[in-house]
């Protein structure tokens, strides 16, 4: 029988020729949709599979009776007993037999309580479906802890009680993780699979769907509590991309900082700067004011944070400090190429200020940067203004510095 067994890959070439495609989604779900392979050279014309019927995408998954509202009590209550059993055997109880008997009675009480609440139509549904691993997982776990499975290791070659128990618990936990409100219960089962539990959690956590930021924070906490920092960062980045697609730039930057993703953070910082070029205003200044050490995530974010500080100083009338910061930014080598016209333009009012803001050396720095960047098209109408303002400020600065030297 086994020699005649065949493996069919779905979707295969036959499916594709018939105009059908399929793809796996997270949590044992498969998506079936119309498909036709096209190449760049083919003409854009209606497919041979076109019909008057509307095109649909079907999500197919096996029925899980444990997800029925009435049987949710069975899942939640038995989870508490399961965790109690794992904890008690870590402390090595003195009377093993009595401990196992007590646990088994608790399981029986839970089953009895659930059966009393079942209605006739639900009983019919249960008869038509499997119990999705609840019984075999908990029963095997009881047998394992009672030592009954260990005796089979001597009788059956290649048999491992630990592997058998873990395979059932792993499958049951994975099933529960696929439910929108039982996923944390499922994680608690996977936590007690010594070999494959953590790698499975690492794969499943990023694939759990979330519809609110509260659930996102729960996912992140679960990942961090298990030492899965990379998973937490991945979830943060996905949330950041979602916020960006909704136009919530400040929220996207917050998630990017949590993800510690340098390239993504730089991308968002560029968004802020380009938005400033088009509108003349920096948005989410409260967030930028409180970046602190978080701005070290990327050079571009450092520039954005310091440029925001420059604006704040300018609004407060701290022109000297403002000028020092502007010069520091010019020589920092972290200025985006597209932002040089704006940065050099910011120097014009400071050069023409009644109070001497820039020293002679600072003025030479501005002229040097202007000479290096004068080929940028956006600077063409500002070059003459900048040179004139720099020349005036240079003469004033030299005279002032000479007078200061004579006084000394």
UniProtKB/TrEMBL annotation:
Protein's UniProt keywords contain Transport: yes
TM segment ranges: none
InterPro entries for this protein: Nucleoporin_Nup85 (IPR011502)
GO molecular function, one term: structural constituent of nuclear pore
Cell location: Nucleus, Nuclear pore complex
GO cellular component, one term: nuclear membrane
Source species, domain of life: Eukaryota
Keywords: Membrane, mRNA transport, Nuclear pore complex, Nucleus, Protein transport, Translocation, Transport
Biological process annotations from GO: mRNA export from nucleus; positive regulation of DNA-templated transcription; protein import into nucleus
PANTHER family given in the database record: FROUNT PROTEIN-RELATED (PTHR13373), NUCLEAR PORE COMPLEX PROTEIN NUP85 (PTHR13373:SF21)
Subunit structure and binding partners: Component of the nuclear pore complex (NPC).
Protein name: Nuclear pore complex protein Nup85
Source organism: Dendroctonus ponderosae (Mountain pine beetle)
């Amino acid at each position: 029988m086994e020699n005649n067994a065949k493996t069919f890959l779905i979707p295969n070439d036959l499916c594709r020729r018939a105009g059908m495609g399929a793809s796996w989604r997270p949590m044992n779900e498969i998506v079936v949709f119309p498909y036709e392979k096209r190449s760049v050279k083919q003409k854009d014309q209606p497919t041979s599979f076109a019909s008057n019927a509307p095109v649909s995408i079907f999500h197919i998954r096996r029925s899980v009776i444990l997800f029925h509202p009435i049987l949710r009590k069975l899942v939640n209550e038995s989870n508490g007993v399961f965790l109690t059993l794992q904890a008690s055997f870590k402390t090595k109880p003195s009377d093993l037999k009595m401990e196992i008997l007590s646990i088994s009675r608790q399981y029986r009480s839970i089953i009895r309580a659930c059966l009393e609440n079942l209605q006739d139509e639900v009983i019919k549904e249960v008869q038509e479906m499997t119990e999705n691993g609840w019984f075999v997982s908990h029963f095997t776990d009881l047998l394992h802890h009672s030592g009954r499975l260990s005796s089979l290791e001597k009788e059956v070659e290649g048999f491992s009680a630990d592997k058998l128990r873990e395979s059932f618990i792993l499958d049951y936990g994975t099933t529960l993780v696929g439910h929108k409100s039982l996923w944390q219960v499922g994680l608690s089962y996977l936590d007690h699979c010594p070999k494959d539990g953590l790698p499975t959690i690492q794969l499943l956590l990023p694939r759990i769907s979330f519809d609110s930021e509260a659930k996102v924070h729960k996912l992140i906490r679960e990942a961090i509590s298990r030492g899965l920092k990379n998973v937490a960062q991945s979830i943060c980045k996905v949330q950041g991309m979602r916020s960006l697609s909704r136009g919530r730039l400040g929220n996207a930057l917050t998630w990017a900082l949590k993800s510690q993703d340098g390239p993504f953070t730089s991308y968002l910082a560029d968004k802020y700067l380009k938005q400033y070029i088009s509108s003349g205003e920096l948005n989410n200044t409260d967030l930028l004011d409180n970046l602190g050490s978080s701005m070290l995530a990327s050079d571009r974010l450092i520039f954005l944070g310091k440029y925001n500080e420059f604006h704040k100083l300018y609004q407060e009338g701290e022109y000297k400090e403002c000028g020092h910061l502007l010069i520091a930014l010019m020589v920092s080598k972290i200025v985006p190429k597209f932002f040089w016209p704006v940065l050099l333009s910011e120097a014009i009012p400071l050069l023409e200020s009644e109070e001497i803001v820039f020293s002679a050396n600072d003025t030479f720095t501005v002229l040097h940067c202007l000479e290096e960047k004068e080929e940028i098209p956006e600077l063409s109408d500002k070059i003459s203004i900048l040179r004139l303002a720099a020349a005036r400020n240079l003469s004033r600065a030299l005279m002032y510095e000479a007078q200061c030297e004579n006084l000394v």
